[in-house]
Amino acid sequence: MKILVAVKRVIDYNVQVRVKEDNTGVVTENVKMSTNPPDDNAIEEAVKIKESGKATEVVAVSVGEEKAQETVRKALAVGADRGILIKADGILEPLAVSKLLQKIVEKEKPDLVFMGKQAIDDDCNQTGQMLSALLNWPQATFASKIEIKDKKLEVTREIDEGLETIEINIPAIVTCDLRLNEPRYASLPNIMKAKKKPIEQINASDLGVDTSPRIEQIKVEEPPKRKAGIKVKSVAELVQKLKNEAKVI
Amino acid sequence: MSVLLVAEHNNKELKPFTLNAVTAASQMDSDLHTVIIGNNCGDAAKKLSELPLVKKVIQVEAAHYENFVAENFAPVIVKLAENYSYVVCSANTFGKNLMPRIAASLDTSQVSDIIKVISADTFLRPIYAGNAFATVKSKDPKKCITIRPTSFDPCESSGGSAPIEKAEPSEEFNNTKFVKREEIKSDRPELGTARVVVSGGRGMQSGDNFKLITSVADKLNAAIGASRAAVDAGYISNDHQVGQTGKVVVPDLYIAIGISGAIQHLAGMKESKVIVAINKDGEAPIFSVADYGLEADLFEAVPQFIEELNKLNTIQK
Predict the structure, then answer these.
(1) CATH number of the structural domain spanning residue B20
(2) Residues B222-255: tens digit of each pLDDT
(3) Which of A51, A154, B20, B290 is deepest in the core (most CB within 10 A)?
(4) Chain B hits for A17, Cβ within 8 Å
(5) Which domain holds residue B152?
(6) Scanning every residue of chain A, which has its alpha carbon at the shortest distance from the alpha carbon of B128?
C-alpha cells in the first residue's frame, strides 16, 4: 500500500501574526515558518502505518514556493520515503491545490491520501474534501483514530456532537485531527539521512491546471481590539462586578 | 437567481444554527430556498417551512440520507444548485465536511466561515485564528459559502408557511458506510448557543477536578468548555473544545479557569461579550482579553466563587 501525504508550509503556530500596514496581507518576512500542525499528524500516521508493515511507501507532497521544499524535507526526516514539490507562486486557493494534487494522485496512484484537516493560515478546511470530490473517493474528515481492515479503513471522526465512526473503502482521503497521534521529532541522524532522499520538483504550470485565484482579497485588517479589562483583587469583588457592573449573572 | 441553504437537522428537529444560517443566507439574496436531506425528516421540513424568511423548502428523502454522509449529500445538492447562485450552510463540522465536496463538483472556490455579508459577492472572514480579518470578493458565478453561525442572529422561527416540494434522491455512494455516532447527551445548554460558558484548561490538572467547572456551570446554567490542552490530556471529551479547530463561542459571559490563553484558544472565545479569567499566572495571555481577571489559585478561588454565587439572591438563567 502506498500513502501520499500532503503538507503545507505555514507561519509557525506560536507566532503572533501581524497585519501589514498597507492591508494587503500579513507579515511573512523574517517570520518562523513550520509545517501546518495537523499535517504533522498526517505524516506521523502514514509513517506509523508503514512501520506496522501495512504500507510500503510514504510520499510527501507540498504545493507552494521554492521554500516549501523545507516542509517536504521535514516530512522526509520523520520517515517519508520521498518527496514531491509542486512549485507555484502567489495565493493558491484550496480548489487549485486540490486540482494539482489530483494530477499527482493520477500519476502516483496511492491507495490513501492523508493531510491535515485544516491549514492554520487561511483556516479554509477544504482541500481534502475537494480532492475526494474530484476523485470521487470516500472522505474521512477530522480523523482522531484510523484502523486498517484489509481494503477498508475504520475511521473515528471528531464532530460537534461527539464522535462518529465510518467505514470507507480504499482508495480514500483522510484529513487528520490533532488528536490522531503524537508527532515525533526528527532526530539529527534522520535529518542528515533525509538530505539524501529524493524530492521531485514539478512546475504547477506543467500540470495543465488553471491556478488563478477566483477570490479577490480586497483587504486584510486587524480585528477590532477588545477594550482593556481590569484585574480584580478578590472573588467577592469579581462576583460584585459581574452582578452590578457587567450585569451578566 | 437565488440562494439554496442546506438545512442541518437530526431528522426530527432543525439544529439551532440552521436559523443563524438562514439569517446569513437571506442577506445574500432574499429569494431564499432551503433544502433538507434526510430520512423521515418531515417534521424538520415542516419547521423549516415555518421560518418566515424561507420562500420554499425542498425535501429529499432516502434511507441512505439517515446519517448525513457527505458523499451521499453532495450529488443531490450539486444537481439542485443548477438553479441557484449561492449554496450556503453553517461552518460547523457538518458544513465543513460537506460544502467543499459540493464546491469542487461545481468548480467553485469556496468562501469558508464568513462572519459578515458585505455585499452580494463580498464577505468578511477571519484568517490566522482570527488574528486578521480578510475582506474577500468571490468572482465565481455560483458561490459556495459557509457561515460562522455565532456571527449571525437566529432568524424568526414561526409565522411562515413556505411550500414544501419533494425532489428525487441521488444514488447511494457505496464506498462510505456510517457505523455509529457517540453523542454525549447532556441537560445543559449547548456549547455553541449557551448564554454562559465555563471553561477549564490544563490548570485543572485532572478530569476529576473538572467537577469544579461543573459546579460553577450548574450555578449559572452554563455550558462547559475546555481548552485543547484539557481535551488532549483526557480531562474531558472533544465536543467541549473551544478554539481555532474546535468550536467558536460568543456567550454573554465566558469564564476561563486555569486556561493560559494560547492564540488557538482565544480564536474560539475572544468575541464573547464579557470574559472572566481565573489563573495563578499573572502573565498568562488570557488576561489580555479578559474584562475581569483574577490572579489566584483556582483550587482556592473556584470554591469561593461558588460560595459567593450561593450568597446571591437571584442569578440570571
Answers:
(1) 3.40.50.620
(2) 999 999 999 999 999 999 999 998 899 999 999 9
(3) B290
(4) 128-129, 131-132
(5) 2-166
(6) A121
